[in-house]
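User: Predict the structure for this protein chain, please.
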Amino acid sequence: MRADSGFFDAKVAHAAVAHGCDFVIVAKRSSAVWSAARAVPDDAWRQAVGMTGAEVAFCGYVPAGWPPGTRCVVRRMHVDAEEISGDARSRRRRTIDPDQLALALDGHTGHAYAYSFICTNLTLAPVAFEYWFRQRALVGCPARRRDGAGTCCCNRRCRSGSSAVHQTRRRRQRRIEHDG
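Assistant: Here is the predicted structure, written as structure tokens:
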């Protein structure tokens, strides 16, 4: 079960587990989430697949009352200070750590990071998980499982309709999962 931050609630995660489903829910940004992101060691970050300037890691954030095995994957994207909008309503601004935002806007640093947080009970490595999550909108894979679930053997939906494209994506996904 995949959900955006509007469904970020322990009850939703528990309901998914109770019905035999895994869950993937975008976390709301809070002081606890920001603290967990700041605590990720520099050597824990890995380059995200297909996203220049983005890195992925596990962080120590686990929402209170969520099912056992819940973990949080965090993605950060390098943003040059001059690309940060002066408008406080900007969506991108809300994804930047408030401490980094202040430094960037005051000219004390040349960049900041925009963050995304995803809570899940899936056990994929963070790079493979984040890549899979970003691909969630793709539909129509030519190699669907025969169980009628509509997902393909690489556990995602694809829209290409081309077996050659699908095979390339499968090989890429296997490589990501292996290198993790």
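The chain has two domains: 2-123, 135-180.
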